[in-house]
Queue: 2 jobs
Job 1
Amino acid sequence: MKEIRNFINGEFVETARHFTKRSPMDYSPIARVHEAGKAEIDRAVEAAHAALRGPWGNLSLSERSGMLSALVDAITLRFDDFLEAECADTGKPRSLAAHLDIPRGAANFKVFADLIRSVPAEFFESATPDGRGALNYSIRRPVGVIGVVCPWNLPLLLMTWKVGPALACGNTVVVKPSEETPQTATLLGEVMNQVGIPAGVYNVVHGFGPDSAGAFLTEHPKVNAITFTGETRTGTAIMKAAAQGARPVSLELGGKNPAIVFADCDLDAAIEGCLRSSFSNSGQVCLATERIYVERPLFEKFVQRLKEGAEALKIGCPDDEGVELGPLVSREHQEKVLSYYRKAAGMGATVVTGGGVPPMPERLAQGCWVQPTIWTGLDDDSIIAREEIFGPCVLVQPFDAEDEVIRRANDTEYGLACSIWTQNLSRAHRVAAQIEAGLVWVNSWFLRELRAPFGGSKQSGIGREGGVHSLEFYTELRNICIKL
Ligand code: NAD
């Protein structure tokens, strides 16, 4: 079993309390994780402040940006170690982690290391009564020590999506990875040391949420701002913690994302896209589609094709040849998803495919597997249409008119993402602009431009990250006024 330690002030730190990380594939113990208590959080926050005052805070912008670029190369050199750790923690197919999680995890440093070199500043000339005038300009300064609280679904990618811009802007961080996925954040500590990023700039503390490392970090009065990705309920608790001391928050929260499939779509592309958006990473993607609305003339054919696609998905372990679907991350999450499978059946849903646990060979029988599942026959008020399930499952419903489907797609407390499938360009623009979500894709899904804003409307989040939008959160603007 691996030992996973906290990473504080450039050193790996053991604690007296531990918890066990289990494999999603067979539920065997794979790591003993050292849980940080209040004392370790204090040390991490102090180290982050010291780095801010000292070596990190004194670097020039180009030195800082150069170090982050070197970090990208160093992550790439240890690509296989990151890949192995991410797949072991999550159970996701190696092919997925190799083309998404690890390269994007590294790219998140590169994009912000480059961006920070070319951010423009404002400048105003002001009139004054004596006629001489004044010059105003703005400079950006780091916010300070950022608390970064992360989920388990895309562990390295979502963590560096925050740590990349935070460090590029000159802040220091204390990261609390999910208790389900402690490995890659810890491994990144080794790489930080290899590259020579000063001690205290990047710290990792392990543990759970309430009464543990997550709460201790977000309640810590010397944490200057908190960025969080996870469930809406947790985001609400974190916002309350941040209210103490009026500290800023950036929240990337849950979703109940629709896809809208018009009868004039390219059907092959829509099927391929909806299979990906509903089932990739076993549906454990915040942007995943959990509701598909299909224009009635296409409905039967679409459902049949989606069923064939779902049934063809190969389920297995990360290294299995051609595997497309892994287990869910944990027993707890498997039980949550299966409880929705039972509720759907109990409410009289038509189970088009799936609905249970797939038969797995003996050695994997204890793993957290669920079948990819498609339902029809439930209405918009059912909990299956309203609550985020976060598994490989989707409800497909017919619609008749454009106005109707826009209203139904928007009839949710969430507002993260939507995909629209149509070949009618005017309709694509018209409908996209009326969808109440932070991200709308037309004829695609999860096609990310890292300079574009990312975030959720309604209960899917607060704030936008990505490109210059990340600077809104990770820097403070100072106005300097010079009287001439
Ligand atoms: P979660 O909210 O259960 O946990 C996220 C993190 O918060 C974990 O590290 C956890 O230990 C910590 N935490 C829990 N309670 C806390 C508390 N009271 N104080 C401080 N920290 C606390 O989320 P999860 O199950 O890990 O992730 C799945 C959820 O994340 C889904 O709802 C999904 O939609 C959402 N998500 C959103 C985005 C996005 O960009 N909007 C991206 C990925 C995941």
Job 2
Amino acid sequence: MPSSETSRSPISFPAGFVWGTGTASYQIEGAVDEDGRGPSIWDTFSHQKGATHNGDTGDVACDHYHRVETDLELLGQLGVGSYRFSVAWPRVQPTGKGPVNQPGIDFYRRLVDGLRDRGIAPAVTLYHWDLPQPLEDAGGWTVRDTAERYAEYAWMVAGALGGDVALWTTLNEPWCSAWQGYGVGTQAPGRTDIDEAVAATHHLLLAHGLGVEAIRAAAGSVQVGITLNLTPVRPATDHPDDLAAARRVDGNQNRIFTEPIFRGRYPEDMFGHYPDLAPGGPLVQDGDLEQIRVPIDFLGVNFYFPKRAGAAGRPEAAASPELYLPWPNDPVAEHLGAVSVARGDVAQTTMGWEVEPGALTELLVGLRDQYGSVPVYVSENGAAFPDYVDQTGAVRDHDRIDYLDGHIRAVGAALAAGVDVRGYYVWSLLDNFEWAHGYKQRFGLVFVDYATQERLPKASFDWYRDIVAANGLPEEPV
Ligand code: FCB
């Protein structure tokens, strides 16, 4: 572990380092059928029985669509240099094709202007999972046409918001869209077919490549990148079977995205599992990989926790059930012959995610070592804890402060190792609709009382405001 992570010594960040926070459209906006917005796959999915915790949906969420001024004020108080939000495709182009829905664009124009008035750089994600439902009905990400539709949508939004946006991100976490959406089925659209997940992977990547060019064509020389959820995958033991299983999980989680984006090829060692990605297969057409490899200005990295994987069926696994916890009903892991491995001695968030900040340094240094010096933004990092408003009316989320402190130090360690990290965004500004976990999991710097929509900054909000102001960390987390 890097020493800076545990030493708690003060650290300062380079001048110009971007401190930010983020949200995503479906998680906060609500107003799902206002001003011409069409339905998305998340509207459909969240309304399916049993799909989300408690049957929660994003119908109202944080009602951000109507409270955008309040939320801009909060961002102003926090003092962040940048705010990362996503545009809901079905607000801008309700059916996924055809003309722009002007009220939808106007909403994001107001948001961008409100940010710029406060000196906050807008960072726009064009796709944070809310695919227009009519496109899903026509095959969703399993069909190539969706990538073409995406490029047209990207061109529209980039034309409308253009150079007023500091960072353009094509996609958020295509791994989740493809593998949780079409493979495991725990996210929209809730399909469970490995071949479909593979097809979705390729079409999302193609959408990214086409999107980068569309954004540049519409908005000129702006900063364009993609956000991936990458994570180190640790083997359960150093037994060759576990090493091989961890490598397979790494292939699925990380390399089937980074290899085409940075090297214009899919990882050969995954062809046995995903033959459709091999050259000459049914998916990858001539020119696709060149398109996917189009140069980007930055890579967004979302990091929460490292993964630990072992080989399914080893006798050790049966003997230590507390260590080897098969991913339940996970056809993707099953297909790879892998099981998830828990480490009992590590603290966890309420998502069950292990807290291990050193893994973020390892990830950032590893990316630089593998792919060279690409400017990186840590575009999401944060934690869910059982927050509550205490008798004094405060939310004293010291566990979150600790988590963020550790991870910001881990970013500092990566910078010290020469990685070109340009910024860090806390997930999230607000407690919000945490996908299949509904409103149970709170990630915000600001507590949201969903019954009243009251916003209450948590202790972590004040703590982060001071970090942003000081461009660095004090000695001890407060
Ligand atoms: C990421 C998502 C984000 C949020 C966090 C907790 O995978 O990009 O929307 O749900 O997890």
